[in-house]
């Protein structure tokens, strides 16, 4: 039985991508890398594809956090501070659940992320819901990145 983890989305099936892993025994985060090279103009915001999707149990979420070295070494930040990958994002018809990192170049020069370069770290965590939440109508996800609440 699969509990939680990562898979490669079909459009990158033959690209030789590696599944993320924790760098040390006590690391909480899985390092996610760019699936292809991306160039950022100064102050530009772009979505960086990881070529991955994540599956998890009910009551769990995958949070994406900036790597601590990104601002200092690359001049890049995860512009939305924390990415939230919901369990029902996995396998959605809009984009198969492909995980993207929304990054911004905070420098005054071009910055390039190379394919295979680590961009964010993903941490699986449980979450709680408010009383009465189970009685509300639930929206069914039908799209990809940023698709709920449209």
Describe the global form: globular
> In percent, how much strand structure appears in the residues?
35-45%
Q: Work out the radius of gyration.
A: 16 Å
Element pattern in H and E? EEEEEEHEEEEE
Separate helix tally: 1
Helix residue percentage: under 10%
Strand order of the largest sheet: 2-11-6-8
Structure description:
The chain is mostly beta strands and 150 residues long. The chain is 3% helix and 35% strand. It has one helix at residues 70-74; strands at residues 5-8, 30-33, 38-40, 45-49, 52-55, 60-66, 76-78, 82-86, 100-105, 111-113, 118-126. It has a four-stranded antiparallel beta sheet with strand order 2-11-6-8, with no helix packed on it. It has a three-stranded antiparallel beta sheet with strand order 4-9-7. A two-stranded antiparallel ribbon has the order 1-5. The longest helix is centred in the middle third of the chain and has 5 residues, at 70-74. It starts with a strand and ends in a 24-residue tail after the last strand.
In short:
This protein is 3% helix and 35% strand.
Top keywords for this entry?
150 residues, mainly beta, 4-stranded antiparallel β-sheet, 3-stranded antiparallel β-sheet, 1 helix, 11 strands, globular
């Amino acid at each position: 039985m699969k509990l939680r983890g990562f898979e490669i989305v079909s459009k990158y099936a033959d690209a030789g991508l590696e599944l993320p892993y924790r760098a040390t025994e006590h690391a909480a985060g899985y390092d996610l890398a760019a699936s292809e090279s991306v160039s950022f103009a100064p102050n530009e915001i772009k979505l960086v594809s990881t070529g991955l999707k994540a599956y998890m149990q009910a009551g769990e979420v995958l949070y994406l956090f900036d790597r601590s070295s990104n601002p200092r070494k690359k001049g890049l930040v995860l512009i939305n501070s924390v990415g939230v990958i919901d369990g029902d994002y996995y396998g959605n018809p809009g984009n198969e659940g492909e995980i993207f990192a929304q990054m911004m170049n905070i420098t005054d020069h071009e910055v390039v992320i190379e394919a295979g370069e680590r961009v964010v770290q993903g941490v699986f965590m449980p979450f709680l819901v408010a009383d009465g939440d189970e009685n509300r109508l639930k929206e069914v996800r039908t799209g990809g990145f940023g698709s709920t609440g449209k």
